[in-house]
Amino acid sequence: MDSTGYITLSRQSGLQREMQVVANNIANMATTGFRAEGVVFSEYVKSVDQGPSLSMGQGNIGKTSLEQGGLTQTRGTFDFAIEGDGYFVVQTPLGDRLTRAGAFTPSAEGQLVTPDGYPVLDAGRAPVFVPTGGEAIAVSADGTVSADGAPIGQMAVVKPIAPLEMIREDGVMFRADAGDEPAESARVLQGFVESSNVNPLLEMARMIDVQRAYEMGQSFLQSEDERIRAAVKTLTET
Question: How far apart are CA 197 and CA 37, in angstroms?
């Protein structure tokens, strides 16, 4: 296979990765707090002695959409959504992670936890505890938790210092290696959850475009294979 074939093959690999991302977005259209992902294509160029440079593309850089998802009212006491640029902080076995998925619940020990059992952290990065004795729980816009009107803690609401460098480790969990800071302008809403920000119409149109581009590349590779086979056959017969 010559350089043209390798270039096309690298493009096909990137398109396959993009199709996987689009399919994952569509599969998570109903996932609370999910943020759509895209693919950024990068180019690698290498000079070749006595010939044109070789260029190969890769589609292995993920890009997360930071667009606000729709807010759905649930009236649940421990359902929370963030309006604006902010994230809840969750303690996982691998370290603190950021999430927009605010469907929490009290554990048997009284900790506020995610559906996976990970503790929700306060501004001091300690687990948030809530009473389980029937007290009326309220949360203000800054994340302050009150029981029967008395403040008992404050959920951390932060924003990553480098949002475009966040690494997705789970469907709704992100790692911010550059650190985070308080999200002063964000507002916590109790009794709401944030819906996925996936736009189904755009994703379906994107899937069709990627499929057509892949089929075009596949057709080109097949033509190249036939051309090379014909050339080899001609050379061997002479």
Answer: 10
